[in-house]
Every structure is written in C-alpha cells, then in structure tokens.
Amino acid sequence: MATKPHHDAEGGPITDEQGVYRFKPRAFNIVWGNDNRYWRIPSTRSNNDEVAELVQVSWLEVTGLVELRPLKTYQVTFTLSFKEDAFGWNGSPVFLMAKVGKKGKYKWRRLKELESLPKVPTEVPSNSEPFLVEVPDDVPDKRLYFGLYEVWSGKWKGGLRVHGATVKEKK
Question: What is an example of a Pfam family matching this protein (predicted)?
Fold first, then answer.
C-alpha cells in the first residue's frame, strides 16, 4: 500500500485548447486512489490515454480543479464506462457537483445514467441535458471545483472506468 491513501492531482494531464479543458485520469484527486485494493491509476510513465479503474469503494470521490475566465458559462462532463463485472451502482446516488471558488456554493445533479452506464466510454451528463456552471465576475477565486461523489449510501461499488473529464466554454 502507498504511504498516502489518496491520489493527488497532477497538473500535466490537463490540456487547454481554446476554452476546452481536458482532464486525464492523473489530473484528478481520487480518494483512496493510491491504494490498489480500491483503484488502478495509470502510471506517470504511461504514454496513452489509460483510464482510472475503480476496483471497489464505499466512498466515491473523484475531483478536479481548473482556473476559468469570468463572465463565461462552462459545461462539465465526465467520460465514464462500466466494466463487465461492475457492481453496486443500482440505487447508488452518484452526483456531479461543482462550485466556483473555494467558498462558492455547490451546484449539483444526480447522475441517474450511472445506474445503466454502457461498457463503452460515454459522456455524462449527456449534451441533451448539459451541466452548466457560470463564472461570475464579482468573485475573487475563479477556480472551478468539480467532481463525482457517492459518499452517502455506504454501499460497496466497483467496475467504474474514469476515462477523463471535460470543462468547455459554451459559446
């Protein structure tokens, strides 16, 4: 087991392409991410777009952070899939949550898609029901804190594959 149980985000796996921020798995803070009993995280030597694979947890917390421009609206999505042997997701209340600034107020949405997520990488939430966050001009901290959470049920769950996340400016 690693000396620290949680994986701390690394800045390198985030790319910025004209208002589109792409997060690879190592760009997230992942609770229990450094413990291979719970997660498999791609190594820093990996050259391809590997996934963070959830083995099993009862506390799901995968979070990211990015500095954004004020007076803009951004769409937040995670790219996720299930392994064949995924378990514990039916009835587990998984939420996408986001706030602007450390002291900001969370906006949230339950992701019912995770009760029947396909085995192929899928953007959640879908573009038909986007999760949008506005960055006001009157807050000193313009960082977006966002993440996937299921910390309430205490149910064990596994088999989730986190391919990445995107925070993109809505034009």
Answer: PP2
Q: What pLDDT is attached to residue 1?
A: 47
- Average pLDDT of the residues of the chain: 90
Residue 145 token pair: 């804190």
Q: CA torsion, points 22, 106, 75, 113, in degrees to nearest 10?
A: 90
Distances, alpha carbon 75 to alpha carbons 25, 46, 84, in Å: 19, 28, 29
Structure tokens of 128? 């038909």
- Between CA 126 and CA 25 the distance in angstroms is 20
Q: How many CA atoms lie within 13 A of 167 on its CB side?
A: 30
**Contact, 83 vs 130, CB < 8 A?**
no
| Residues contacting residue 129 through CB under 8 Å, at least 6 positions apart | none
